[in-house]
Amino acid sequence: MAYHFESTDELLTFLNRELLSAAEAAEILDVSKARIGHLMKSGKLQPAKDQPKVFLKSVILDKKEELNELRKKYRPYDE
Fold first, then answer.
1. Is the CATH number of domain 10-78 1.10.1660?
2. pLDDT in tens, 54-75
3. Domains of the chain: which residue ranges?
4. Taking a C-beta distance cutoff of 8 angstroms, is the pair 48, 19 a contact?
């Protein structure tokens, strides 16, 4: 996927909209920050930047769908 920005303001707007902190990612995924660390360590979640941990929103939303499906499969009593 290639991105093209006409100005610095356009780039900054994109970054503010599309990048998430580890805490924001944990909130969206409904997991703890420790679980975020485990997902990264196991290779199931790639940060866009290591320090501080920053994630692309699209990656987090895809992971949320995956986790929801796994919860339905392995935790049917939660429904």
1. yes
2. 999 999 999 999 999 999 889 8
3. 10-78
4. yes
- Locus of tokens 């969206």: 28
pLDDT at 16 over 90: yes
What per-residue confidence (pLDDT) applies to 79?
64
Enumerate residues 6+ apart whose C-beta is below 8 A from 67: 29, 30, 31
Is the bond preceding residue 52 a cis peptide, omega within 30 degrees? yes
- Paired residues of 65 in beta bridges: none
User: Rounded to two decimals, what is the model's pTM?
Assistant: 0.78
In order, the DSSP letters of 6-53 are SSHHHHHHHHHHHEEEHHHHHHHHT--HHHHHHHHHTTSS--SBTTTT
Contact 36, 74 (CB under 8 A): no
